[in-house]
């Protein structure tokens, strides 16, 4: 421990470095600028002295600071003597957590430890998550969250969201449930019905882990306030027989309800949310099954402030990756041919956004669709299959023979990019990757299916088989790969680059509807955030994970500009300086002083009166 923690008076620059991701909110504070001070006072989040005291305060995760409570707080708030007499800074607590976490035997144990921390001390949970995002995102999010969902009944300890079931099918009942949630200031809901949890299929009520994980990223990657966020599981049963037989299953033991009753539940849910939390409450749909995802998006997108992350968020992040690739291939997206393995919500959303991007580059819609080839479980989408295709897929149908053979399709089409969102592990075989390399000097291969166990190929396979020429991305993270002494850093093509920023903009500027074109704007922001060094030195076509927080702010600014221009932003007066407005409201992972809760300018380098240790950045957090 002594070698890692050095008590000393460190310069503000060193501290800023060690906390760079955590304090984005304070980066432009200048107490000498009266304009900034005035705006800060106008936009600062409400602060009130907590009504809770004593043990009750220590058991409130949003307020608890453990041994970081100062002597004044301990005495004033009735907790003196309830804690060990020593004091710890937040940094020391974070260090202790990380040390223990790294000693856990596996990722599920790490997930459980972090889950427990979130239940005890919310601010410390986010502090640890923000400071170690590259190391911990695979725990709170894909791939470990998938395993946690599969084992949810067994590892269950505390509820972290709301459950609305088919037995609560009326607006008043759902309103009642929403009213039971302790925060009245909910501004964003992530909801799933658990039918398509990552690529793991129907996990029913165990799917609650996904909204919980997505909302943890709202806070960690965009600085949303935790009490604005509500995870919801809609339980209409499950068709997963294993779960129905599972003694620990936490949901309704019945087959899935479909049809009119299901639709009525969803309608009632949307109305009840709006009634309870207001018409600007954002509702993010997540991991709905193929037959409902697009249908519900079409049904609600013009009526509510909502989006489907798997369709629109994924589309945005994949187009971002493709745009970054154009800087290497020196070909516009509209000059590429693309083959998709999978034609569900994710792949179809991406294909449609590629069409929009190609149109912006001068192609007609028909010409753009001609460049896109899609395969589903029945094979290539061809004109022969037209009678059984949805309208969405008809426009991509090709005058080609039916085939289920991806290699044959790649040989026939000669695509520049191969994109997998199929949940088929290992579908991109050595032969297929070699064929892509024979066609292209820099083939684009995205294995987007989650979790890692479902990826169409691994990073190692893609880089090794292509001898490093591939422009690769995957939905779940892979380790770096070294070939012939050269280091390759696979980017994570995951909607986590997009949904936090879009949500932040939508919530802060009180957007009434999420216009689909926002996602194309977000894609361009993500693409332009990829550095030349990243592209040229490491073939990495996505930004670093630790940059997402700043990217989210950029995306939120784009959302604001676009929504004021098209009249969907309803926050008035329109903030003159949107960036400052955002930065003043994002969540700060530094503990607050609970008794001196004045509206003072936040101290730039508050040391809590104690020596502050320097925490070494995680070795995984390098470039
Ligand atoms: N990286 C990221 O950010 C994201 C990744 N994903 C991942 O993408 C995957 C798919 O998600 P989503 O589109 O929402 O799921 P869907 O269930 O909507 O779609 C899956 C698609 O894969 C097709 N498919 C299944 N088996 C095969 C096969 N053997 N050959 C060809 N196609 C096949 C299905 O065909 P059919 O339609 O005929 O059933 C369907 O079109 C998941 O693993 C998910 O985790 C999703 C969102 C974001
Ligand atoms: C990333 C994501 O949203 C998914 O795999 O479903
Ligand atoms: Mg999803």
From TrEMBL:
(S)-malate binds at residues 196, 450, 494. GO terms for molecular function: malate dehydrogenase (decarboxylating) (NADP+) activity; metal ion binding; NAD binding. One of its GO terms (cellular component) is mitochondrion. Divalent metal cations. Prefers magnesium or manganese. A divalent metal cation binds at residues 286-287, 310. Its cofactor is Mg(2+); Mn(2+). The active site is at 141 (proton donor), 214 (proton acceptor). Residues 311-564 form the Malic enzyme NAD-binding domain. GO terms for biological process: malate metabolic process. Residues 118-301 form the Malic enzyme N-terminal domain. Keywords: Metal-binding, Oxidoreductase. Belongs to the malic enzymes family. This is Malic enzyme. It comes from Pristionchus mayeri. The lineage of its organism: Eukaryota, Metazoa, Ecdysozoa, Nematoda, Chromadorea.
